[in-house]
Amino acid sequence: MTKRLLVIDDEDSVREIIQISLESVAGWDILTASSGSEGIEIAESEHPDAILLDVMMPDMDGPTTFKQLQESVATCDIPTIMVTAKAQTTEQQQLRNLGVAGVITKPCLPQDLVDEICKILNWNQVTQL
User: Fold this and answer.
1) Which CATH class is domain 4-121?
2) Whole-angstrom distance, CA of residue 63 vs CA of residue 33
3) What is the C-alpha to C-alpha distance for residues 49 and 19, in angstroms, rounded to an integer?
4) Each residue of 62-115: pLDDT tens digit?
5) For residue 39, how many other CB atoms are within 10 A of its CB?
6) Where exactly are the structural domains of the chain?
7) What is the pTM of this model?
8) Which stretches make up the Response regulatory domain (predicted)?
9) Which candidate, 1, 53, 55, 61, has a CA 20 to 30 Å from the CA of 38?
């Protein structure tokens, strides 16, 4: 069965690159949202298999969005991976301490992104030909 992921990122180009990468490399269905509040609405209605959540966003940042996802019965069981441009170990540890499934540093090559997601979520690797 095809995995469905929700990508929440305020940057159009980043969302597009991640969407194309995951669809072409892994064959997953990708939903996208440009803000935390839009992402929460989509997560509640579509219930994706996992969420990729940007840390730095205006209005509602990644940690705040994650907290709201955790507080909702409809979305609290969806594994969430934080995506950040900050490579510092201390900052990544602070994100992990929130209870996210994992942290991925961007930029990331398409195949590496798929590998990281599969590793974090313990999914079998899928390779599209």
Assistant:
1) alpha beta
2) 16
3) 15
4) 999 999 999 999 999 999 999 998 767 788 888 889 999 999 998 888 899 999
5) 31
6) 4-121
7) 0.92
8) 4-121
9) 1
